[in-house]
Inverse folding.
């Protein structure tokens, strides 16, 4: 494992492992103080390691530091009875080095998906404690105020403490699997296409999501959705090297150099899909993985099996009732039946399901308008979409499309930016 050099790397690589070790030893009733101790240990590493050098065993250093901070916090607790009870727990010292090979990240993930928590609480707590997302990132992903997300995290910790859950809690590999997969899906999506900031993606976050998805799949190899999610991640992340220019500008799927795609990851993802499809119902992650597989197998946009992709999107739409899925189906409709068919579906969405100023809806509408030769309308939609997005690379891409239409409005219609984005 490479040694992290930034606080974000430390948090995502070691924090869930150290937090798991503390919870395993001292109990989930100490979730709050354990997490605080881990955060203080990470801050200490950030302050000390640049000057003193990274320790030979960073995880052991963090674990020892976090344990000391935990003890300090408990000793300063003004509630005497609680302090005495916790001091009894501390009577048996925690080994500075964890047991060989143990990584409690997945157990912390499952703990955060405790049945005593609401689904929203499970997701918020996991993204904070395991994935290392900030409150702002979580709020943006759910289109909620930061204060609301902070309250959810606080309430989730309190419920775990009140429930007195054992650690690890899940009884079987498939226990709590649905919320775990939902959290990993959101984690990966936030890393693959960051909703805010100057970078299109966060490789640390996608790498951590894939690592945990591999662990989940290894524990439940016959579970179709666990397999589908891992395959979807691998097939999607395989395009990463082709998604941006050397300056960080976004490159849409249809314009990417497919020679830069990660073929080993694609082979792994395709193999997982082939093994998982027989005998499993068409569930959401398997359907999305199947769509990603068709894109990965195609030599070009024109040679993509769009009729099959359209069928899969219709199945996915029925399974999820998600308007974003319908928006993606609109692009497939345009590729099979023409841009007018896609635009009609987008307009229905704007009337029924998505705000007319949603940046993704505006972006898809702009591409379909461009495809249909409606240059002025497309330019306006690109500009409106650029004003709505908080992602700097996406904004730059949308504005570049608008400028291209302004500079060359008499040119022939350019190819469509196909679904899947970058």
């Amino acid at each position: 494992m490479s040694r992290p050099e930034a606080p974000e790397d430390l948090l995502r690589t070691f924090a869930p492992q150290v937090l798991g070790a503390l919870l395993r030893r001292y109990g989930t009733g100490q979730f709050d103080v354990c997490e605080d101790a881990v955060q203080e240990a990470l801050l200490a590493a950030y302050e000390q390691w640049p000057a003193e050098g990274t320790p030979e065993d960073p995880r052991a250093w963090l674990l020892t530091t976090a344990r000391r901070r935990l003890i300090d916090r408990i000793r300063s607790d003004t509630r005497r009875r609680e302090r005495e009870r916790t001091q009894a727990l501390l009577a048996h010292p925690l080994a500075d080095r964890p047991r060989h090979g143990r990584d409690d990240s997945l157990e912390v993930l499952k703990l955060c998906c405790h049945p005593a928590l609401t689904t929203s609480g499970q997701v918020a707590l996991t993204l904070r404690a395991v994935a290392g997302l900030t409150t702002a990132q979580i709020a943006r992903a759910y289109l909620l105020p930061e204060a609301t997300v902070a309250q959810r995290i606080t309430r989730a910790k309190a419920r775990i403490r009140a429930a007195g859950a054992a650690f690890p809690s899940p009884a079987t590999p498939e226990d709590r699997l649905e919320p775990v997969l939902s959290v990993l899906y959101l984690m990966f999506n936030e890393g693959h296409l960051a909703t805010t900031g100057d970078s299109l993606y966060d490789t640390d976050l996608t790498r951590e999501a894939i690592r945990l998805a591999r662990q989940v799949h290894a524990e439940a190899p016959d579970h179709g959705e666990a397999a589908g999610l891992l395959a979807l991640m691998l097939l999607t992340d395989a395009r990463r090297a082709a998604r941006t220019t050397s300056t960080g500008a976004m490159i849409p799927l249809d314009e990417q150099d497919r020679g830069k795609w990660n073929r080993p990851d694609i082979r792994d993802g395709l193999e997982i899909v082939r093994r998982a499809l027989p005998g499993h119902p068409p569930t959401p992650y398997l359907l999305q993985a199947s769509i990603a597989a068709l894109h990965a197998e195609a030599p070009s946009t024109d040679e993509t099996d769009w009729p099959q992709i359209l069928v899969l999107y219709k199945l996915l739409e029925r399974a999820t009732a998600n308007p974003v899925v319908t928006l993606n189906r609109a692009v497939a409709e345009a590729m099979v039946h023409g841009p007018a068919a896609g635009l009609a579906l987008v307009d229905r969405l704007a009337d029924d399901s998505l705000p007319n100023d949603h940046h993704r809806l505006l972006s898809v509408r702009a591409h379909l308008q461009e495809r249909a030769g409606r240059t002025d309308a497309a330019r306006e939609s690109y500009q409106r979409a650029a004003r709505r997005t908080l992602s700097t690379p996406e904004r730059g891409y949308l504005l570049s499309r608008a400028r291209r239409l302004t500079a060359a409005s008499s040119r022939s219609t350019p190819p469509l930016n196909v679904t899947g984005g970058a």
User: Anything to note?
Assistant: The mean pLDDT is 83. The chain is about 65% helix and 0% strand. The domain at 298-422 is CATH 1.25.40.10 (Serine Threonine Protein Phosphatase 5, Tetratricopeptide repeat).
